[in-house]
Amino acid sequence: MLAALLALALGCEGTIADEPPRTLDGGADAGADAGIDAGTDAGADAGTDAGTDAGTDAGTDAGADGGAGGTGGAGGDPGACAGGPLASPIPNCTPTPVPNTGDIHADCFARINQFRWDCQCLPPLSRWLDGESCTDSNAEYDSTNGVHASFSAIPCGSGSRAQNECPNWPSNAQVISACLQAMWDEGPEDGNPNTVNGHYESMATSTYTRVACGFFTTPSGTVWGVQNFD
After folding, report:
1. Domain limits at 24?
2. What is the mean pLDDT of residues 137-154?
């Protein structure tokens, strides 16, 4: 269902043939974690792995900023989460995408928090409102310079940070509903170098405290979506 997975560090690409180009990035991370930071990002089809990729560590962890902007997308059954965060995500968790509010940045942010709460009882990230313009710039820059080219060229935030990316998707709505689902479906690190997990690790982070989503539509009509965690 999803197409190419691009890797910043390894340059790998995996494909699934039954749809036009829909890609997950090969995430980037400025932390020093050995493999569960989003620096070892990779993508998966919503239910089907779509290849391998890897991100890049680009510095040393310096903690994570708290962000302003509120919370979003925390539905689910409070009773199921009464005991706090789950040790691992609920298997095959596919929450119905959040309603379209007309604000793609807010909807993307809410969708990430929806996965965190509905699928693992994780507390919400804060919306990094003042990072959204920079993240839009990341998406535009990468559309012509390659996946994660912006991570070093146009850094958003500082210290410990991570970046997930959905290059060449058909629409903003598909980035929010399907690409983020595919990223979550990767699941936690399992020690298998052939398993891709990095996007999930960013989304389920306890290291980063806020997230900004960015979007850019190319002249050909495809969408690049970037999610920066800080």
Report:
1. 5-229
2. 97
